[in-house]
Amino acid sequence: MTPCIRRSAFALCLLACSLAVGGAHADSPAATTAAPAAASRPAPKPLLWKVSDQDNSIYLLGSFHLLKADDYPLSSDIEQAFAEADKLVFEVPPAELSDPALGLKMAQLAGYSDGRTLSQVVPVDVLAKMKQVLGAEHVSQLEAMEPWFINLGLLIGVSQKLGFQPDQGLDLHLARRAEAASKPVAGLETADQQLAVLDSTPMDEQVAGLRDFLADPAEAQKLLTETHEAWRNGDAKRLGELAIDQFRTDTPVTYRIINVQRNDAWVPQLQQMLDGAKEGNTLVVVGAMHLLGQDGVVEKLRAKGYRVERICSACSGQK
To answer: What span is annotated as the signal peptide, if there is one (predicted)?
Structure first.
């Protein structure tokens, strides 16, 4: 068993791609109407950075795309960043995430373009394990689906059993609040672009992730809990260990496609927000993985000479 591949799957689902949870539930009324309940424990410590030049600033906020009701209310640091922001920018424009057709688009893209089926792609032992875990009838209904889509469904299923909900995700929560406050919103990429990213991961790495999840579904629950706690604690180092380090080493192509290439495409857009004096302040909300480590946009912007500071009143010595 190799938990590193399972880590890449969780990064994909919860820390990297908003469509992974938003698109899968775009046709649900809860995705646009639910409001988080009051928290019974302290607010999460934010993964929040302020990047500035001479004219204006952008805030970079690391999201967890599935959260629980008691992850709210948000910290005062996020509230202040939201108040100062003239607009909000997400991975994908919120209107595209709420499009009822998005789930169908995702399912269509998850099919095989070359006529193959799941039974022809996954090894016999993996198929047998799927039937054992999911039931033969259910597996037969997945014959037309690629492993990345199946793995995503399994991970979302595990997360919901633990109380995580897509309508509670930080992105959707702040998108609703931006709409209520009449703040403009935008996206760094389109839904179609993000779907293409999900579908372009190598088949061998998709199969390996599916094999690993099926080998020990209980371990996936443990990892999800650890990843969520690291996010709640604002622990960038621990979150990087869980979501990035072995992901980068053991699934390098997927890591490059999911993280590096998209970060590189976003940096010029973020620079434009900073360099345009008329842009005002912007709150940028993306999966937390995109902000962490040397490949993260925080360090990429720091390397370009912008002033970068971690904003976390409740943190002690975290960067």
So the answer is: 1-26
**What is the domain partition of the chain in residue ranges?**
3-107+161-203+215-310
Beta bridge partners of 111: 145
Give the pLDDT band of residue 184 (cuts 50, 70, 90): very high
Closest CA to 61 of 270, 280, 294: 270
Tell me how crowded residue 142 is: count the other CB atoms within 10 A of its CB: 18
According to the 3-state scheme, what is the secondary structure of 175-219?
Answer: HHHHHHCCCCEEECCCHHHHHHHHHCCCHHHHHHHHHHHHHCHHH
Asked if 236 and 318 touch (Cβ cutoff 8 Å), the reply is: yes
Residue 222: count other Cβ atoms within 10 Å of its Cβ.
Answer: 12
pTM for the predicted model, two decimal places = 0.89
Give mean pLDDT, residues 149-161: 87
Looking at the DSSP bridge assignments, the partners of residue 308 are 51
Buried b (16+ CB within 10 A) or exposed e, 296-311: bbbebbeeeebebebb
- Residue 272: pLDDT above 80? yes
Report the amino acid identity of residue 295: D
- The DSSP annotation for 140-163 comes to HHTTTB-HHHHHHHHHHHHHHHTT
The listed range with the strongest mean pLDDT (134-143, 145-154, 199-208) is: 134-143
Q: Count helices and strands (H / E) in the chain.
A: 19, 6
* Mean of all residue pLDDT scores within the chain: 86
Taking only the tens place, the pLDDT of each residue in 82-127 is: 999 999 999 999 999 888 888 888 888 899 989 999 999 999 999 9
